[in-house]
Amino acid sequence: MLRRTLLAAVALSSLPGYSKTQKLTLRAKPGQFDATSTGPASTAASIRGEFRIVEFDTSAKWPPAAYMGLHQGTNRNDSVHVLAVRNRPSDDYLVVGFRHIADGKEVEVRSIQNVPLGSAVRVHMEISEGIATIRVNLTPAIKVVTALKAVAPYVSVSSGAAEFEVEG
Q: Is the pLDDT of residue 49 over 70?
């Protein structure tokens, strides 16, 4: 039985176009965002994967950043997400942190670590009963209390381009 299950899994995963990982590249002009949901809304949602900023717009309109998180509703005005941002064109690193947004306003913002330009940022975020658990790279888990109910996973970029790999 186990052998049959393994053979079926190998056969399914070898089908053209079959992948448990979504690979996306998003691009945004200076001062703009490009965002997409990567799954349906749920009361116990999660997102896991990694992202890397691959192009940086150096205009003064808005710093380049990439985001991976969970949002409620049709926009990201109620969300919790991990972001990596290059604050100044001269910076040779990205600041990685998280933000909790409610009604379009920042409720909580925290820097977690700095990483070199070109680094992949590994994220695992889940939410249940309004409590978001955030893991970034190999840092300890962070708990964030929110009023979010049914959320959908999403990725986004501003003022540049980023590559995302979203698992499962």
A: yes
Give per-residue pLDDT as tens, 6-39.
334 444 444 444 558 899 999 999 889 999 999 9
Look at residue 15 and tell me if it is in a domain.
no
Please state the domain count of the chain: 1
pTM of this prediction? 0.85
Domain limits at 71? 21-167
Q: Tell the residue number behind the tokens 């997409």, with chain if given.
A: 36
